[in-house]
Amino acid sequence: MFENTKAFSGFSVDDIGAAKAFYGDTLGIRVTEEDMDILALHLAGDKDVLVYPKPNHVPATFTILNFEVDDIDKYVDELAARGVKFEHYEGMNQDDKGVARGIAAGMGPDIAWFTDPAGNILSVLQGA
Question: Where do the domains of the chain lie, and which CATH numbers do they carry?
Answer without folding.
Answer: 9-126 (3.10.180.10)
